[in-house]
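Form 7-S
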Amino acid sequence: MNAAGGLVEVRVPDLGNFKDVAVIDVLVKPGDSIAIDTPLVTLESDKAAMDVPSTASGVVERVHATKGGKVNTGDLLATVKADGAQTDSAPAAAAAPPAPRPAAPVQPAAPSQPAASPPPAAGGKLIPRSLLGVPTSYRSDLAPIDEPGFSRAHAGPSVRKFARELGVDLARVTGHGFKGRITHDDVKAFVKGALAGGGGGVAGGGGTDTARPALPAVPTVDFAQFGPTAVEPLSRIQRISGPRLHASWVNIPHVTQFDVADITDLEQLRAGLKDKAQAAGVKLTPLAFIMRACVKALQEFPRFNSSLDADGANLIVRKYLHMGFAADTPNGLVVPVVRDADHKDVYELARHLGALSEKARAGKLPPADMQGGCFTISSLGGIGGTAFTPIINAPEVAILGVSRSSMQPLYRDGGFVPRLMLPLSLSYDHRVIDGAMAARFTTYLVHTLAESRALLEAVL
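Output:
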């Protein structure tokens, strides 16, 4: 990084063996005020996507990278008018052999205390507690670092180096910085929790850090020894959503409640309104009615519209209601969010569902349209299936799966009558919601879907 006349050049850090890495997003523009570690651009290699942090603080004078372009190690990303704050060293300087780091000063021992800590046990790591703001050292048996997860973690180079020094797996640390970025304080808090609990902490699940052994690794197999193979790279959406789904499944105790709703009257009502809705430019799908019914259920059971706080000791109950829905796209599933769903009637919900689905399929869904969800609906009714166990879209605490409806004989008034039945699968976080509450929620939802005309009531 070179400075001349108060201007600082921020360059691409060492990318290892990667060449011509794609710039998939530019996060700042000229005139923006930034701090050290503020993300400037998002890069995507064939292995992972990562944000490149600023090594200077000040005002962005010029952005030299463009979305869709290619960059390599040392390329100029941005010119910053520095505000005098301390900046990190340049990538070019980092290429030179690093100077030996001086040994940390030894803390004088108290008269009745030994001056040195005991050596770590096998597999343990000696944590200098001076790095955590307290004297002496402690041993920590942190779980081994998951290298793929570590490389995908949302953290800057200095935080990565700090985590390496402490033996912390960044894949297990929840970030509280800008756009969820992991900071030095997040790493310190994780280690303190591990020291207090006697082992590595669980991060990202909205619960307290608890000791837990590392997950066993899946064996690596050379499939070509059994026959011909082909390699098909995952889409960017799949590479990003995969770790998120894995984290949700590992960290949240999932339970799924199944039920069926009689939507015979609802479908008759929808069929009668379809032409009128189309004339107004609205495609009135069953999902619009299901979403409206879910809004009513969430208003009746507000705990389903909550999340655990970072310590797992309190519930954060939302006073707004943004509804997510899984949208099938050529590149994989994405979850657009209908904002303020509780203030929209069935027609407005249908209009927003159509617009968001179209943007999702075209790959033009901005990040703002996929954030802030309170509850998610995953509807596979147009494809098939009788039931499934959807994975919770953390930090939400519940998700509704909808399968394909079918005509079934229902015993009523002394005889069987054909009714259109809709299978429902509600997965929920058992730390927040117990089985009785989940059963009441689905029972209420089933009743609401059966009373379809009430779903057309005006929203105040």
